[in-house]
Specification:
Layout: H1 3-12, H2 21-46, H3 53-77, H4 81-98
Helix pairs in contact: 1-3, 1-4, 2-3
The chain binds magnesium ion.
């Protein structure tokens, strides 16, 4: 599946107030990111620092939830997910090639 198809399918399942759309999906991403991190935290607390198949499945589900909100932020801002993925890959690969992957600043 590509980003374009994912984003189109995500849009079909979107139900939130239009007047607050961008704020709604941004807050949703923050919430789902918290859920994701909480599942990872439980590897330490409950799983003796071992990644179990059950925890991996939970992480997959939360990654999907975060991806849905990322796709909807794209939708609400007129971006497309493929474009964002391509941009991010190019940016980070360029930093790797230039030896600037470590350090600070958005434009390295
Ligand atoms: Mg969730």
């Amino acid at each position: 599946m590509h980003g374009k198809e994912y984003q189109a399918n995500a849009k079909k399942t979107a139900h939130y107030p239009r007047e607050f759309a961008l704020y709604y999906v941004a807050m949703g991403l923050a919430g789902e990111t918290g859920e994701l991190i909480n599942k990872i935290k439980k590897i330490i607390r409950d799983d003796n620092n071992k990644l179990t198949d059950e925890r991996k499945e939970q992480i997959k589900q939360e990654l999907g939830d975060t991806m849905w909100y990322i796709a909807m932020i794209c939708e609400e801002t007129g971006l497309n997910l493929d474009e964002v993925m391509e941009y991010n890959n190019k940016k980070l690969l360029g930093r790797t090639e230039r030896g600037t992957i470590n350090g600070d600043g958005d434009n390295r």
